[in-house]
């Protein structure tokens, strides 16, 4: 089925997040936990940073969606991530893999391979991370991409086809593909790259949107999450004087985003 990402599609899913608040379990990196939780709260979702073995699995069964972000994967958290992914799969809980710095660092690269075998619902990363995750490159400069999103499209298609995941590649124009159809969204602002968690929090938002998606609607949900996140960055950037005021303004913009904002700003292809 061909999906058209319209402002109405996006605002419908955003309304569901606000009226049926999903509980999003975040196994994420230590640098971004506060910002990620605040982003989810601004949208209307409920965050839970449950990331220790023995609790991560049972919580994943009860959660509406799960984020696994490999930003600071210490040993205990790595075990919790595998536990959560296995439980999410068993319970049918949608989960998102954010392969931070995969390819350039060995421990997380090996962990990512184990998690991929558990078939994430969605994979979200920058172009270099997606290329490395597919085994077609060695990664970027740490957490920074050295590749263009269009260059990552073959890798994204490969991951989608092999693992049954929706793959989102971030950049000036975001690419979202399920292996059959590819959507492009050209919104956002460079200030997102100057706030800690500006990219990582999108993984949690993606999990929230997947949690309220219709059956078979993963592609639309991932694209809608990206659209809401990047559209909200634009008025926040216009009203800010730099990264600090942008971070606060971005939370406000997420909380106040309307269907009219999406109608006026959303740029898709």
From TrEMBL:
Its cofactor is Mg(2+). The keyword Transmembrane helix does not apply. Substrate binds at residues 49, 197. Keywords: ATP-binding, Kinase, Magnesium, Metal-binding, Nucleotide-binding, Thiamine biosynthesis, Transferase. The keyword ATP-binding applies. It catalyses: 5-(2-hydroxyethyl)-4-methylthiazole + ATP = 4-methyl-5-(2-phosphooxyethyl)-thiazole + ADP + H(+). GO terms for molecular function: hydroxyethylthiazole kinase activity. Its EC number is 2.7.1.50. Pfam families: HK. ATP binds at residues 124, 170. Pathway: Cofactor biosynthesis; thiamine diphosphate biosynthesis; 4-methyl-5-(2-phosphoethyl)-thiazole from 5-(2-hydroxyethyl)-4-methylthiazole: step 1/1. Catalyzes the phosphorylation of the hydroxyl group of 4-methyl-5-beta-hydroxyethylthiazole (THZ). Belongs to the Thz kinase family. HAMAP family: Thz_kinase. This is Hydroxyethylthiazole kinase. It comes from Arthrobacter citreus.
């Amino acid at each position: 089925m061909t999906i058209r990402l319209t402002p109405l599609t996006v605002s419908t899913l955003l309304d569901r997040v606000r009226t049926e608040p999903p509980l999003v379990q975040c196994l994420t990196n230590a640098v971004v936990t506060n910002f990620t939780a605040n982003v989810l709260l601004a949208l209307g979702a409920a965050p839970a940073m449950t990331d220790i073995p023995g609790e991560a699995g049972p919580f994943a069964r009860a959660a509406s969606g799960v984020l696994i972000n490999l930003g600071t994967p210490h040993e205990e958290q790595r075990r919790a991530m595998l536990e959560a992914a296995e439980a999410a799969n068993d319970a049918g809980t949608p989960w998102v893999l954010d392969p931070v710095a995969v390819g350039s660092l060995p421990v997380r690269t090996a962990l990512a391979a184990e998690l991929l075998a558990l078939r994430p619902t969605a994979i979200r990363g920058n172009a270099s991370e997606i290329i490395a995750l597919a085994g077609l490159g060695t990664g970027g400069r740490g957490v920074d991409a050295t590749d263009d999103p269009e260059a990552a499209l073959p890798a994204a298609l490969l991951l989608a086809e092999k693992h049954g995941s929706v793959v989102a590649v971030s950049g000036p124009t975001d690419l979202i593909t399920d292996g059959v159809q590819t959507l492009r969204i050209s919104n956002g602002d460079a200030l997102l790259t100057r706030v800690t968690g500006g990219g990582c929090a999108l993984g949690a938002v993606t999990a929230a949107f997947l949690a309220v998606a219709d059956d078979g609607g993963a592609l639309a949900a991932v694209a809608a999450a990206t659209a809401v996140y990047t559209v909200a960055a634009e008025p926040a950037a216009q009203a800010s004087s730099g990264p600090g005021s942008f971070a606060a303004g971005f939370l406000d913009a997420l909380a106040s985003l309307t269907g009219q904002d999406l109608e006026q700003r959303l740029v898709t292809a």
